[in-house]
Amino acid sequence: MRGALSFGSLPRGLALLFRETVRHVLRRPVAGVVAAARTADGRWLLVRRADTGTWALPGGTLEWGETASATLVRELLEEAGVERCTLGRLLGVYSRPDRDSRFHAVTIVVECAIEPPARPPVNPLEIREARLFHDAELPRELAFGMQDMLAVARTGGAPVLE
User: Fold this and answer.
1) What pTM does this model have?
2) Which of the chain's ends, N or C, has fewer CB atoms near its CB within 10 Å?
């Protein structure tokens, strides 16, 4: 193939450096943040994911140049229509590689006091609906094993480092 660059045409040291760089860029965990969000009357906010149809804590991945707190505020607005939230304590950092089948995620869980959603999710192809649940109504299973994340918020347990 004329004009194509192959690893064989690069000096050995440069080829090794290139491979190592690609490996690091493509094989790094993705950083995300989710909210264990609760209204003043004690209801928990969950979102129904479009890809799995299951309920989950609202949140998402950090964008380049964005802080974790800014990501959480943005995701609560986009996924659940929450316009007002007060960030609370750090509940944990979850990093078990088998939690999410799409990629290896490092998820920061933050307690949030919220007002009820003011509008529907921005992207129905990602999130079907947002809903508030009383403790007795919460689904037994959440997407990506998030039930343990919510349990720490519900019980007031110590922060988790997974």
Assistant:
1) 0.83
2) N
Instruction: Return the number of other C-beta atoms located less than 10 Å from residue 102's C-beta.
Output: 8
Question: CA 140 to CA 150: how far, in whole Å?
Answer: 11
Are 40 and 113 in contact by the 8 Å Cβ rule? The answer is yes
Residue in 130, 109, 134, 110 with CA at minimum distance from that of residue 120: 130
Domain count, the chain: 1
What DSSP string describes 107-152?
EEEEEEEEPPPSS--S-TTTEEEEEEE-GGG--S--GGGTHHHHHH
Reference 94, options 80, 82, 106, 111; nearest CA is 106
Helical ranges in the chain per DSSP H: 12-26, 68-80, 147-155
Q: At 122, phi and psi to the nearest 5?
A: -70, -40
Could you report the per-residue pLDDT of 61-110, keeping only the tens digit for each?
Answer: 999 999 999 999 999 999 999 999 999 999 999 999 988 878 888 999 99
* Residue 44 resides in a domain: yes
Domain containing 102 equals 29-161
Rounded CA-CA distance 14/25 in Å is 16
Residues constituting the chain: 162
